[in-house]
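tokens incoming
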């Protein structure tokens, strides 16, 4: 738990979220500002700042997150594929510094690239 981290507060229940999945290692919840018909985030419960801060000890955790992406995308209604995005650091335009995997989809093809709607 990192103080003043929005996603740590969601994990602890201090802030609300619409949960998609939870187990002892990870939490998935809908993005508050969806950029597609389906848009949720998968995060580790441990506070890792970004993909730039992972090492081989995190391989199992990252594998679990990637494996969950397709299962949860389908559960959320994205049947024919989805997009995963991991914004990292300043160049990657990361806004929340708790590692998160965006999963975006729906029932129609996404734009070639994602631009924020607002
Ligand atoms: P990024 O720009 O990759 O760091 O993305 C951060 C994402 O977190 C954005 O898509 C936000 O809409 C989303 N977000 C921020 N606060 C919350 C929240 N309280 N609940 C759900 N999603 C959030
Ligand atoms: Zn955190």
């Amino acid at each position: 738990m990192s103080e003043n981290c929005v996603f740590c507060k969601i994990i602890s229940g201090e802030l609300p979220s619409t949960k998609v999945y939870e187990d002892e290692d990870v939490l998935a919840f809908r993005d508050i500002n969806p950029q597609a018909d389906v848009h949720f985030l998968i995060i580790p419960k441990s506070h890792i700042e970004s993909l730039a801060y992972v090492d081989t000890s995190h391989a199992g955790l990252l594998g679990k997150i990637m494996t969950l992406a397709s299962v949860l995308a389908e559960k959320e209604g994205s049947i024919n594929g989805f997009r995963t995005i991991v914004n990292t650091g300043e160049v990657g335009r990361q806004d929340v510094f708790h590692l998160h995997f965006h999963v975006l989809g729906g029932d129609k093809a996404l734009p070639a690239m994602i631009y924020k709607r607002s």
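note: DSSP finds two helices and five strands in the chain.
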